[in-house]
Amino acid sequence: MVLINKAINEVTVKLVYYGPGLCGKTTNLEKIYANPKLENKGKMISMSTETDRTLFFDFMPMELGTIAGQKVRVQLYTVPGQVFYDATRKLVLRGADGVVFVADSQRTMQNANLESLENLRTNLRVNRIDPDKVAIVFQLNKRDLPNVSTVEEMTAYLQPGHHPVVEATAINGGGVTQTLRTAVAQILDNLKKNVDTTLYELPPLSAPDMTARAGVTQSSAGTPKLSVTPFIAEEPEEDPFGDVAVAEIEPFADEAAADPALESARALVQTLELALEQAREHLRRLE
Which of 57, 67, 70, 190 could bridge 195 with an S-S bond, Cβ 3.0-4.6 Å? Predict the structure, then answer.
């Protein structure tokens, strides 16, 4: 859900990186954060588990210009891929304006990709977000590895439909910038066209069930650790928004003002507290 702060003339949009465990979501955000041409960015917040991490940071791409005279701020999130953290994934998806689905190109990951994609669609509906209308970009990652499915094979089983598809090798930075550009352009295009992504027929949202066992295994859970992680770019990269153009639009005339920084901080604190509670409950069961 777009947040508008009229006091500082700023619009905030939320983009979530989603996909199975170890597919490259974290690598995407690290490469983006380390890009020396990406300025006006906040600190990266990292909640680590044994096998995956949930990351968050925001930035203001000055190259995008303004929307109806308002500056654009982009919030980037990743979600943990393991089934144990489904409640956390639901929370992180709340209010998302766009999603990058990171698919692992290895043939052995086809079932994991499909399960994660179905989980994404389910959790979007739980959050009353229409999967057919929200901005989604499919990133086919790890194209540099041996024994990967062809692009045709992956699009056949992922069935992205009208959503864009981008090939990537995130570990080397390949396709990372193109994916980000495409996703932000899709979000802004939805704003320009006043696309309403809300599913109105679903019941009101309720708190997720933090006691569900949901397929807990030793490899699917860990103890969250909150840290602020700095990143240093290894070499100069291309401008993340050099080719993105934004038309002047007026989609927010009647929206109430909101503080995007405060709202995102509250959502992140809630996510971390619930994930920590979940991990403690898992530890009690193991003990």
Answer: 190
**pTM of the predicted model, to two decimals?**
0.74
192: left (phi over 0), alpha (psi -120 to 50) or beta: alpha
What confidence tens digit (pLDDT) does each residue in 22-57 have? Answer: 999 999 999 999 998 888 889 999 877 666 677 899
3 state SS of 19: coil
Q: Report whether 195 contacts 133 (CB < 8 A).
A: yes
Residues 6+ away with beta carbon under 8 Å from 176? 28, 31, 32, 168, 170
DSSP letter string over 36-76?
A: TT--SB-PPEEEE-SS-EEEEEEE--GGG-EETTEEEEEEE
Amino acid at 210: M
CA angle 172, 56, 132 (to 5 degrees): 85
Write out the two tokens for 221: 């859970």
Could you count the other beta carbons within 10 Å of the beta carbon of residue 150? 11
Taking CA atoms, 262 is separated from 5, 41, 176, 270, in Å, by 11, 16, 28, 12
**Interval 77-103: pLDDT, tens:** 998 877 668 888 999 999 999 999 999
210: helix, coil or strand? coil
Contacts of 265 (CB under 8 A, 6+ apart): none
Under CATH, to which class is 3-286 assigned? alpha beta
